[in-house]
Hints:
4-stranded antiparallel β-sheet, alpha+beta, about 50% helix
Amino acid sequence: GVFAHLEMLEARAHEAAVKQEEMEQQEEKLAGLRARVEELRLQRDELRAKVDLQQKGQLGKEGVVPNPAQPSARAVLEWKIKSLKALLELFYLTGISGKLTKRGVCFCISTAYEGTYLDSYYLDLLTKPEVQIYRHSVPVFIPLQQIAKKYLQTDIRRFLSVLYDHLNAYVGRRYQADQLQEHFSDQIEGTLQRNSLCNLLVFNYNVPSKSRTFPFNVRLLYGDLCCSLPTEVVISCTPNAPASLAETAAAHSDLFRRVALHKVFGSFSSAEESVD
């Protein structure tokens, strides 16, 4: 038992060291990304300013009367291409990549949860005569059209960022539910009930024990669709459960709000091992 305990401690220490190193690498990457974002924003602002001056007929050499003619279609198109290339370079480091197509640009949104890469979704945009969605693989329950209506024509960077948040939060919620069913099925009664968006989960559960009863019923509601943690947790005890379990249910409710679903059940198992 002592050796097993030591091995467990060593494994946890190694895992903590790996996570610390990953966090440091992510912080460095984030710092570089922020610097690049500022650089690209400056370039974007300069390009916009030049196009605005051209459109107003105010761009000309010193001492020369500016040409009041509107910028050519080619000049506007070149500006759009440069802006798109800047966007592609920026989002490549944030889980969003893409390539220019004959009609516009095709984005690939890669999702992940806690360092585990999950699904990728594709979005094909047309850029002329105006930016519009040509085809995509985004699930129907993601509010793509509402996000597009709000941001697509005015701020494509914001559009992609919001869409990414929705997709990443969805796969995070789904991943947690899958991990719970895969690794802690003995603590759940029947099948975990969830909707397509995985923003409503309902199930009965028990903490690790010799008893096969499942005294707790939990309802997890994820009111923020860009978040992978629940905004509302309701835990009730079955009618025949001891009154003393009400305090345990309250403690569990706080855990579900702060910790990933499968990790909550992992903490139950760890607590049981400590007692043993």
